[in-house]
Amino acid sequence: MGGIRFDQLDPETQRRILQELREQVEGAPPAEPVPEEPGTAREEEPAPGEPGRGAAGPVSPPQRGMSPFTILIMIGVLIFGVYYACFGQTRDLNDYIHASGGDSVAATAADTVPPELAVSSPQGGIRVEARAPDVWFAGRTEPGAVVMLELEGATRELSVDQQGNFGEYINLLEVLEGALRAKAGSLGLAAVPGNTGQHTVRVTAMDAANNETAKEVGFYFDDPADAVPDDYYRVFPAYYDNTLGDLKRRLDYLMRFVDAPGKYKYDVLDCSESAAMMENFLQNSGFDAWIAVGPTPWVGGKGTHAWVIVKARDGTVAVEPTMWLGSPWRFGWLLDFGKKVGWLMGFQPGVTTDPMYFKYNRLYDNVYEAVRAYGSEQEWDWWNELRRRGAMTCIPSVDGQG
């Protein structure tokens, strides 16, 4: 139910209400006297007849409490003071920024200027070889910026000092191989060789506000891996699906039903070529195989040898690849016959977990990496030797298809 406003009352009622409020306010009890502190002089009582003193002089009006109107004014002043203390200065600052054509938020996020970037090394048009892939990248950028190098989708971050200078040797072959390995995985291939020819390195500087500046440096890459046949690796199922039992069956098939590509001959068809052949056969059969190079396992670590490391779902073993080659000695046919008998009897000669076979110096994920590391295909080119002999140019897989 709505009430009646004061201004809607008749004048007589308004005067009566105001009179009652005035009497209530004037009739408020006087304030309590303040107790005197010790040692304070007491004010003398006024003598009779003196103004303001005694019964004969005028009497001071009684002390009254603050009126409600005064209390409301004080509360309003207090609220205004608190509001101004909290928001008044910020509002004034914002008014000043707006009057200057700016904005308080935009003033802190207005960095849209790309960082400076100067690449002093290398100069465009350089030639990079697989055996000397380290290239000096140097330059200057804005202090605090991040400098990234990108090649064929692979990235590498460069170190930047407090003055914005950077300088670092980058192995372009290593970066390129990482990019090719990622590309191979997306295609379901064992590896994809790099292309001899022109490549582009993109150098990018990014500041704290994500502004970027980019420079491009072109170089010519001389890739010896282009000598590897195009169909060297094929598409196959995921790695590690096979077991060590599957490995035995594949090697048994190879030893018993596939003629050796030739007799062992140093620097023509020796451990490195046979290791590349064995890696190719196992890789195309669905195993993850590496070419290993290290000290010769059976002569106390003297000399250098190459063999294959194979990973299956239930273990990792080493495979001696020269067991497949014909023996070069006069009565080597006896040794070759003994190897076949050993496989028939289930002895698996050449498959081992001997710790000496795991003390290799380097593992090559595929033949491309091995060729690039040696700067030429001559150490691994079993396919050329077989072609010269008029033999097969591709090792058959487990189903007998080349």
Short structural summary:
With 402 residues, the protein is an alpha+beta fold.
Description:
With 402 residues, the protein is α+β, with helices and mostly antiparallel strands. It has 8 helices and 13 strands. It has helices spanning 11-26, 68-99, 172-187, 244-257, 271-283, 332-344, 367-374, 382-388; strands spanning 117-121, 126-129, 134-141, 146-151, 154-158, 165-171, 197-206, 212-222, 288-295, 304-312, 315-319, 351-352, 362-364. The strands form 3 sheets. The chain has a 5-stranded mixed β-sheet, with helices on one face. Strands 12-11-10-9-13 form a 5-stranded antiparallel β-sheet. A hairpin with a 2-residue loop joins strand 10 and strand 11. The radius of gyration is 47 Å and the shape is elongated. Residues 51-57, 329-334 and 396-402 have low confidence and may be disordered.
Q: Quick check: average pLDDT?
A: 75
N- to C-terminal distance = 101 Å
Fraction of residues in H or I helices: 25-40%
Outline, from the CA principal axes? elongated
- In the predicted model, the low-confidence regions spanning at least 5 consecutive residues are 51-57, 329-334, 396-402
Binned strand content? 15-25%
Query: How many alpha or pi helices?
Result: 8
Largest sheet: 5 strands, mixed
Radius of gyration from CA coordinates? 47 Å
**What are the secondary-structure elements, in order, as H or E?**
HHEEEEEEHEEHHEEEHEEHH
Q: Please state how the strands of the largest beta sheet are arranged side by side.
A: 2-8-7-4-5
**Class by helix and strand content?**
alpha+beta
Give the number of DSSP strands.
13
